[in-house]
Amino acid sequence: MDTVFIKEYIPMYAKAAELTIVLGGLGIAFSLIAGLLCALIQYFRIPLFKRLVNAYIELARNTPLLVQLFFLYFGLPKAGIHFSSETCAIIGMTFLGGGYMAEAFRSGLMSVDKVQKEAALAVGLNHRQALMYVIFPQALAVSVPALCANAVFLIKETSVFSVVALADLMFVAKDLIGLYYKTQEALFMLVTAYLIILLPVSVLAAYLERRVKYAGIGN
Amino acid sequence: MEKKEIVLELKHVRKDFGNGPVLKDISLQLHKGEVMVFIGPSGCGKSTLLRCINGLEGIQGGEILLNGKLISTENTKWSEVRQKIGMVFQSYDLFPHMTVMENILLGPVKVQGRNRKEAEQEAERLLERVGLSDKQRAFPAQLSGGQKQRAAIVRALIMKPQILLFDEVTAALDPEMVREVLDVMLELAKSGGTMMIVTHELSFAKAVADRIIFLDDGIIVESGTPEEFFTRQKTERAQRFLNTFIFREEKGGDEA
Fold it and tell me: DSSP label at B5?
């Protein structure tokens, strides 16, 4: 392996990694917000919105990010709507991730026994307080493993960002292979970069899962 | 008893579920300090009645009045009513992600806006009263069934409700834990608590009740003092119900 080559191109990978982390992080954050919102709409069975959310979740989860990005980057400009590459990437991630996060939150909310809500109401809490203090904390404990898995999944999905003209890690690796035929080195650095980004996320996820485990224990 | 003020009044209450009425025409008056015990076969509507009184189920006919004020309306503020009508459930339903103390403080602090320190001190007193002083920091999963139920009673008590509803609170407990919960309830009754109790423990009903209401098929079949109910039943239906229990005791022999 050509260590000189590797050293030379570390900054290029670092820059791409930064892009992955920033856009991935923003995508995850917005996905969590969108997902929670959708899950709450479903949980409270808000008419009409519930149907819209269902349709959205199916659409988001059953189409590839690649296609969603194509639509945002090449399709929308035809309708006169122009987004920058970064905006497209974040919108795409939020669209995809929101669907997955919604399902994770929803399954958590569904797992909380109905009588917990009644017990909460019986001590005088209103519906909002019952959700906030009693139902949501228990639901979150159940949802955390799925939420974390989704976060890791979304970061990996950043590897298709090159279709909207972003120099992500995958793009850099392919670029270097194309230019210098240093396939081994380029791919080695690619794998290493993803591991450096994702391993801490996984460790954090495992920590979170341990933290919330006790909350999930039944009555 | 009749001279005391009426706290809760039900007038011709009717409750329908999808497949017909569960409560047909229930009228009763609960006086301050009175302990009313509901007994009757499974599915007769006892639990549903309690759930209607604190608004967990809506009613389709009749009226429910608390301190003379109609509470069975469309725009009743149930979170206010429920502070006056506490409820303890069969399956305890403590919040599993909170310690015993946090379970108890949720209502007074978040709903009533009481000072946390003050509420904590009262919680400590109440926990001592039910014999759970050492369990303040325990999580529900670390408690026995009887302990959970006593903690749940404290959670309801700390709201200082005018009425406490007990919905088959010993039905899910191991036999040797039933007593510790019943003793707590008996003590509450003696100290003047106004209570409505649904139970299958007939000897407890006898000991605690001022009035026994025998429900069957959604109507009040008999209503009277424990003495009247257990010795001079007015209806053949109540006799038949009580006979099933007596028979069981004789068959068990040493169990009785």
Answer: P
